[in-house]
């Protein structure tokens, strides 16, 4: 829990700052409007699913750079098949589940059986899935047009709560995913195995844990969640272009996970932390659009600086604590 | 005919990857089939660096004629002249007047922007605040297009060389341009930009989407916000959702270029030039494929024609 | 130790015809091994003889290329940890194998968590963990994170983990190498108790005295093959060594003492980060071998690392041959004339992936450089050849990666690296840990030779026998403080232990 | 050297295949024309400089994800200042050297002093430098127009050799860089230190090596070379767009280094290998453009597959050798 305090405080500060700057300066509920909060929550939900997925892989000491391309593959593939080629939606959705599972399995097998480095395997994945999507769609944009309103409710629907505010449906999906993964990590033997092998693969293997299987499971879940996020993204946005749909999302997901306390060396990470990291990045983007729209092209720089500040502060805090411990 | 032997090869090079170019590709293919020519369509996804290596490799292949949409004409003169030296060069969509290109096929983006501005004026005859959404500001065509909109709304004189930097509000007598938000072709971000605008400026009067996917993103956001119809929309290009929006009265209108025609005409011109026929080149070296405004009354006809071109 | 009926009952575990090869190494060839209920079988062999490999095969961690395993006469499939655990075979590894991010309890039950359909039963873990921790005499909250423990505590957690299996065959691969006398005694008591309950134990150690004391039977491996066996009655130092090395090695090392010269290392009130409470002062003379004794965690490594600039001292003064040494980084210490042979040989002593040549020259590259910063390859070759020859480093060639050398030869590489710099003072931290008898003797001789050539030597050891045999003088540390300074003629095992555990030297407090 | 044989063979195969397919099918010297070979060599030179830079960081066990953004910063910044703001070119070039040096120093300090993970530090760098460039240029394209022909000779000039073929000047620059780095790695004490600490930072430090300084030096050289490459890229292309100039180059550079035998675990890597890896990727792209232009949108997929095939083959070959050794 200690690892999360820093990011939680940072999130709170940025949240309050945005609120004050956006609403106080304009004298209206800009940031704190139901509408904006809903939007914010929906975005956190979509990106959060990616972050949770990649955090599982990071816990094993690996990395997944292919997330964004899996988002692209599913996000483009689903409307391309369902609308462009008239395949029945249940079949398409089945494919949208099976394909990411197969991709994750492939990554896991290459990493465990062939002992290839995760960075390389998933970098190749990044290139291959996007290239393939661009190839089979011939770079055509795909979208649902006016159809599939029911399905699209999953991404843009809401459960009305009170005047002007409702809980976005994707947030419920995120809640489900986060809950399952959190329980998996903390309450089941498999979560414990994952944490153990991330810290010391040998210690886990020598204890009779089939570490290879657990690593494969992590990659499979990660790719599956990337596919799920890809589906929700396209249901939300309603159209996807192969050349750039999901571009860079892996980096934002990894950044969120790291901000949330995951160490790229493996063995640590919490779901709550990842959610806080995701929220921080999304609130920042919201802040820039609401408060500093003219500096919107510096968005990357601001996010980069905040992430850096976050990890530096975290490190300095850890050192201060260690020094105090040593002194006492 | 395949690319083997002595068959002449031609190429149509875009400035990026976009549905807009897919339409142009259809035009290229149609014309190529009609004239029994071998024309490759190349879309660089990696910006100017990739466009350069594509052109070099086309020259290597011994391509007879090339139609290019330069990413930044002023700085690509050398490259374009190299192409012109080894092949027949024409430009489309975006011109490079300082180069040795034979002719330019395209639209005047500044004028097209002013046409879009007129649509805004129709939508908001009393004046009001507007926000501009666009993919990037770097390429000439988008800069000119945006400037055209602004100049029209501020009733300024016709001056394509003017440039208002994107930061800050631009206030005119009747219209205020609240800002310009870019998204780098990230659809999710394009939508988020609209949402955040609705949060910050609840009384925004009109949303202007200048890249093909911007109007659909605007419509998505408006629908979710329950503001459809309350906020006006002015559009550019012919995304399906945009046309549907015009039909449903959600969009005031859209300015369409004619990318299909860019492709089609480019092939025809290349063919003529390769055969030594220079009559296709007008004196001002500009083949205008004018932009058009599509409103509710013309949308059905336009759409039918479009689908026919796309083979739908 | 009373007579026991071991060997009469049918064997509990039998391995036959075990073969195992690694790239370029034949680790085991047609090896046989059996252990009976209620027996302590000692497994002996030089470094690299294949002991650990054989044990890993028994525990299912590694799969043999050929051979069979039988438990109680029934064949068990090799290469499966789960299967081995089912047969009650538990292995305490030579290297620590703990997940430092998990709690003590989680580590003890890793892979065997009490669970209902996958849901962990934390209460059962806590209760059961406390029980096995008590067994090894470790008073620890099972919910503490392992990463916060000391090395010695971690070793005890490893042992507790193996005990929690309720093993019928318990394998201990050099469990005492990072334990001091007190913990070792405790471990032996537990082992005796288990033996009396009928558990089979396989025990590996390079400390022959321990084996002499504990073993009912000894099996010896040499170069990956069975080299012989000794029954309880036949176990003697000489017999064991002969089987292991194939020649006689003297029983106890006895230093042929010289006369120390001027002070080469002077330490005044140095405070370390781990023990900021009090300073340490000591002196080492030229030609003198000074032993540094103490329990695990007494702060000996910390002291050496502070002197060498790894964790710079908080305050105090260090002088080498009278010149002040400001040790802010190992480089300062090296330039000042110090050399450190670190505790963790594989991580800190050698660059495992690099060649013997590159390791031997690593410290002296800068001194020998030409034209500013170019390598002096002639000097490098000279050093490499000389060290391989003088230290008799057993290697197929200069380009052999150090990874493939035996522990003793790796240690010689570390020493050779420093010899090239002709340092004035050697700091040796557990220089013979995990090293077989033959190589130990060579390292002892080397230390004497260094002293004879005028260097001062300060060496940490947890093996009292070697401190008694080698040191001209012994400093004893207790909880970060120097608790005593004993001359050679005052040295006894009890005196050292009393000081190390915080008692006063009874007869005389100072000398 | 063993580690390079695989990639060398692969490169040869792809090179010959491209030659045969492009030239034999068309009956003309397409691939083997002086013009094409010059282009190819120029591209290899530009990307090779990046690859060599990042390989130094990879040897220390680190990674540099910020390369592409440094390319952007320098590539956009130089024409923006020199042309857009009329700064004197010597000052601008000085800045183009000093700024990357400072950036590398910053990365190195954060990695060594604060012990932050290189992935995170340079990910923040990736975001910050691009965001900053976009911000200060207001997303405007920068270029040299018709000016600076002399300087641009560095990137597009050539030393004529025989009819129709000359050695591109950037290749000479690459030769210089590669030579210096190769000598540094193999013939100087510092190269030794770098390799040793890449294998075991602790052991190197315990041998009296100032490992922190060496790591910092690696990051500094890497950023400097990224800046140099950025300058050459913009001199070659003559224009740079802040939003995508140099995008993804870090991934191609890392892929080239890994293909060329660098292990991301640190401690191994050769300059020749990195050059071979870079050449392979560029020949592949050339092949796609020359032979399969209609599949150009699958370029990424092809590159990804070839990289994957390369590392898989490498791994399998290593295993086969090991098995043979064990058997003998
Ligand atoms: N995973 C491995 N890969 C390659 N070689 C190995 C591996 N494990 C052990 N070896 C080699 O096998 C041989 C036997 O090693 P093993 O660890 O069994 O020896 P040991 O008798 O336990 O030695 P020590 O007393 O030093 O612990 C050695 O030559 C060693 O280098
Ligand atoms: N890596 C570490 N992290 C935190 N504390 C440590 C570390 N290493 C040692 N310590 C602490 O420093 C103190 C001294 O340990 P040190 O290893 O110096 O003892 P030692 O006498 O050398 O024992 P040993 O015989 O095991 O080497 C101990 O209390 C230990 O807990
Ligand atoms: Mg062993
Ligand atoms: Mg110690």
Describe the structure.
The complex is a heterotetramer, with two copies of chain A (328 residues), one copy of chain B (312 residues) and one copy of chain C (511 residues). A two-stranded antiparallel ribbon of chain A has the order 1-4. Chain A has a two-stranded antiparallel sheet with strand order 2-3. In chain A, a hairpin with a 2-residue loop joins β2 and β3 (165-168). In chain A, 75% of the residues lie in helices and 4% in strands. In chain A, α7 crosses α8. With 328 residues, chain A is mainly α. Chain B is globular. In chain B, α7 (214-225) links the parallel β9 (206-209) and β10 (232-236). Chain B has 312 residues and is an alpha/beta fold. In chain B, the strands form two sheets. A seven-stranded mixed sheet of chain B has the order 7-8-6-9-10-11-13, with helices on both faces. By secondary structure, chain C is α/β, with parallel strands linked by helices. Helices cover 32% and strands 24% of the residues of chain C. In chain C, the strands form five sheets. In chain C, strands 6-9-10-3-11-12 form a six-stranded mixed sheet, sandwiched between helices. In chain C, strands 18-19-20-15-21-22 form a six-stranded mixed sheet, sandwiched between helices. In chain C, α4 packs across α5 (151-164). Chain C is globular and about 70 Å long. Chain C starts with 12 loop residues before the first strand and ends in an 11-residue tail after the last helix. Chains A and D meet through α5, α11 and α13 of A and α5, α11 and α13 of D. The structure holds adenosine-5'-triphosphate (2 copies) and magnesium ion (2 copies). One magnesium ion binds at residues 51-52, 94, 173 of chain C.
Q: How large is the radius of gyration of chain C? A: 24 Å
Helical fraction of chain C equals: 25-40%
Average pLDDT confidence of chain C is: 89
Low-confidence stretches of chain C: 1-7, 506-511
Order of helices and strands of chain A: HHHHHEHEEHHHHEHHH
**What number is the mean pLDDT of chain A?**
92
Overall strand count of chain C = 22
SS summary, helix count of chain C: 18
Structural class of chain C: alpha/beta
Using CB atoms under 8 Å apart, which protein chain pair has the greatest interface? Answer: A-D, 49 and 47 residues
Q: Which blocks of ≥5 consecutive residues of chain A have pLDDT under 50?
A: none
**Each distinct ligand:** adenosine-5'-triphosphate, magnesium ion
Total count of helical runs of at least 4 residues of chain A: 13
Rg of chain A, rounded, reads: 20 Å
Approximately what portion of the residues of chain C adopt beta-strand conformation? Answer: 15-25%
Anisotropy-based shape of chain A: globular
CA(first)-CA(last) distance of chain A: 22 Å
Which range best describes the helical content of chain A: under 10%, 10-25%, 25-40%, 40-55%, 55-70% or over 70%? over 70%
Strand order of the largest sheet of chain A: 1-4
């Amino acid at each position: 829990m200690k690892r999360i305090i820093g990011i939680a405080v940072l999130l709170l500060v940025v949240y309050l700052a945005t609120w004050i700057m956006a609403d106080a300066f304009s004298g209206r509920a800009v940031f704190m409007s139901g509408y904006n909060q809903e939007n914010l929550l929906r975005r956190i939900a979509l990106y959060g699913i990616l972050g949770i997925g990649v955090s599982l892989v990071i816990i094993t000491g690996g990395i997944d750079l292919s997330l964004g391309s899996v988002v692209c593959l599913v996000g483009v593939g689903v409307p391309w098949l369902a609308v462009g080629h008239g395949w029945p939606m249940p079949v398409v959705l089945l494919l949208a589940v099976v394909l990411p599972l197969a991709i994750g399995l492939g990554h896991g097998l290459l990493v465990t059986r062939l002992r290839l480095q995760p960075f390389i395997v998933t970098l190749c994945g990044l290139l291959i899935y996007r290239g393939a999507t661009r190839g089979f769609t011939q770079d055509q944009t795909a979208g649902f047009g006016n159809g599939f309103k029911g399905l699209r409710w999953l991404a843009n629907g809401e459960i009305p709560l009170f005047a002007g505010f409702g809980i976005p449906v994707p947030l419920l999906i995120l809640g489900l995913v986060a809950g399952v993964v959190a329980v998996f990590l903390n309450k089941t033997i498999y979560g414990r195995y994952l944490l153990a092998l991330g810290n010391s693969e040998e210690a886990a293997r020598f204890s009779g844990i089939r570490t290879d299987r657990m690593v494969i499971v992590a990659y499979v879940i990660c790719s599956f969640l990337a596919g799920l996020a890809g589906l929700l993204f396209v249901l939300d946005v309603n159209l996807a272009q192969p050349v750039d749909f999901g571009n860079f999302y892996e980096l934002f997901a990894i950044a969120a996970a790291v901000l949330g306390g995951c160490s790229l060396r493996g063995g640590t990470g919490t779901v709550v932390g990842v959610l806080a990291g995701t929220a921080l990045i999304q609130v920042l983007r919201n802040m820039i659009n609401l408060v500093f729209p003219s500096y919107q092209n510096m968005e990357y720089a601001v996010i980069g600086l905040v992430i850096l500040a976050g990890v530096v502060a975290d490190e300095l805090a850890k050192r201060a604590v260690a020094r105090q411990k040593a002194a006492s | 005919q395949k690319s083997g032997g002595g068959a002449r090869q031609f190429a149509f090079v875009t400035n990026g990857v976009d549905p807009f170019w897919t339409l142009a590709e259809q035009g290229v293919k149609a014309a190529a089939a009609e004239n029994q020519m071998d024309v490759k369509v190349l879309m660089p996804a990696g910006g100017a660096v990739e466009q350069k290596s594509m052109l070099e490799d086309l020259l290597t292949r011994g391509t007879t004629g090339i139609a290019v949409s330069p990413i930044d004409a002023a700085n690509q003169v050398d490259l374009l002249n190299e192409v012109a030296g080894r092949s027949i060069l024409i430009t489309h969509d975006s011109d490079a007047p300082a180069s040795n290109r034979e002719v330019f096929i395209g639209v005047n983006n500044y004028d097209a922007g002013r046409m879009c501005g007129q649509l805004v004026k129709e939508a908001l005859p009393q004046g009001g605040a507007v926000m501009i959404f666009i993919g990037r500001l770097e390429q000439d065509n988008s800069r000119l297009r945006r400037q055209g909109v602004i100049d029209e709304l501020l009733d300024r004189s016709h001056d394509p060389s003017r440039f208002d930097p994107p930061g800050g509000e631009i206030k005119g007598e009747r219209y205020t341009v609240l800002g310009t938000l870019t998204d780098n072709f990230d659809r999710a971000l394009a939508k988020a930009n609209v949402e955040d605008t609705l949060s910050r400026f609840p009384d925004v009067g009109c949303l202007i989407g200048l890249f093909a996917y911007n109007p659909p993103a605007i419509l998505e956001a408006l629908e979710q916000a329950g503001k459809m119809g309350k906020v006006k929309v002015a559009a550019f290009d012919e995304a399906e959702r945009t046309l549907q929006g015009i039909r449903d009265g959600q969009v005031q209108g859209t300015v369409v270029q004619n990318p299909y025609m860019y492709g089609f005409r480019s092939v025809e011109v290349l063919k003529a030039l390769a055969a030594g026929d220079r009559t296709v080149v007008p004196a001002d070296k500009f083949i205008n494929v004018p932009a058009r405004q599509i409103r509710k009354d013309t949308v059905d006809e336009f759409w039918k024609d479009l689908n026919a071109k796309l083979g739908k | 130790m009373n007579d026991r009926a071991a060997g009469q009952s049918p064997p509990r575990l039998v391995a036959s015809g075990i073969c195992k090869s690694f790239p370029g190494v034949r680790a085991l060839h047609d090896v046989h091994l059996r252990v009976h209920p209620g027996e302590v079988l000692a497994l002996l062999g030089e470094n690299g003889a294949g002991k650990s490999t054989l044990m890993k095969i028994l525990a299912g961690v590694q799969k043999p290329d050929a051979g069979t395993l039988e438990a109680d006469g029934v064949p068990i499939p090799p290469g499966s940890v789960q299967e081995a655990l089912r047969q009650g075979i538990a292995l305490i590894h030579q290297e620590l194998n703990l997940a430092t991010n998990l709690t003590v309890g989680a580590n003890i039950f890793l892979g065997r968590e009490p669970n209902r359909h996958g849901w962990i039963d934390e209460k059962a873990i806590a209760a059961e963990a406390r029980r096995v921790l008590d067994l090894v005499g470790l008073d620890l909250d099972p919910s503490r994170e392992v990463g916060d423990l000391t090395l010695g505590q971690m070793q005890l957690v490893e042992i507790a983990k193996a005990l929690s299996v309720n093993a019928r065959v318990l394998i201990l691969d050099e469990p005492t190498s990072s334990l001091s006398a007190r913990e070792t005694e405790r471990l032996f008591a537990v082992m005796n108790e288990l033996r009396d309950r009928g558990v089979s134990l396989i025990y590996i150690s390079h400390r022959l005295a321990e084996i002499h004391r504990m073993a009912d039977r000894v099996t010896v491996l040499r170069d990956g093959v069975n080299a012989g066996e000794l029954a309880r009655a036949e176990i003697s130092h000489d017999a064991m060594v002969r089987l292991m090395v194939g020649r006689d090695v003297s029983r106890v090392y006895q230093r042929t003492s010289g006369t120390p010269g001027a002070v080469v290392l002077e330490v005044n009130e140095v405070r370390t980060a781990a023990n900021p409470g009090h300073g340490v002062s000591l002196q080492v003379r030229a030609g003198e071998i000074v032993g540094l004794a103490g329990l695990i965690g007494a702060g000996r490594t910390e002291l050496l690392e502070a002197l060498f600039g790894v964790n710079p001292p908080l305050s105090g003064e260090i002088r080498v041959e009278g010149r002040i040494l400001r040790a802010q980084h190992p480089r300062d210490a090296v330039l000042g004339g110090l050399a450190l042979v670190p505790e963790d040989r594989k991580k800190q002593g050698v660059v495992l992936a690099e060649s013997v040549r590159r390791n031997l020259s690593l410290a002296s590259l800068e001194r020998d450089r030409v034209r500013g910063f170019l390598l002096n390859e002639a000097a490098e070759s000279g050093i490499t050849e000389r060290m391989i020859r003088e230290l008799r480093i057993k290697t197929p060639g200069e380009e052999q990666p150090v990874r493939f050398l035996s522990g003793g030869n790796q240690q010689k590489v570390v020493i050779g690296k420093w010899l090239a710099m002709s340092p004035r003072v050697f700091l040796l931290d557990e220089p013979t840990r995990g090293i077989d008898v033959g190589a130990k003797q060579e390292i002892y001789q080397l230390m004497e030779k260094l002293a004879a050539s005028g260097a001062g030597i300060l060496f940490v050891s947890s093996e009292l026998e070697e401190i008694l045999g080698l040191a001209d003088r012994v400093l004893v540390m207790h909880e970060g403080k120097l608790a005593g300074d004993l001359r050679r003629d005052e040295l006894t095992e009890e005196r050292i232990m009393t000081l190390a555990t915080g008692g006063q030297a009874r007869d005389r407090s100072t000398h």
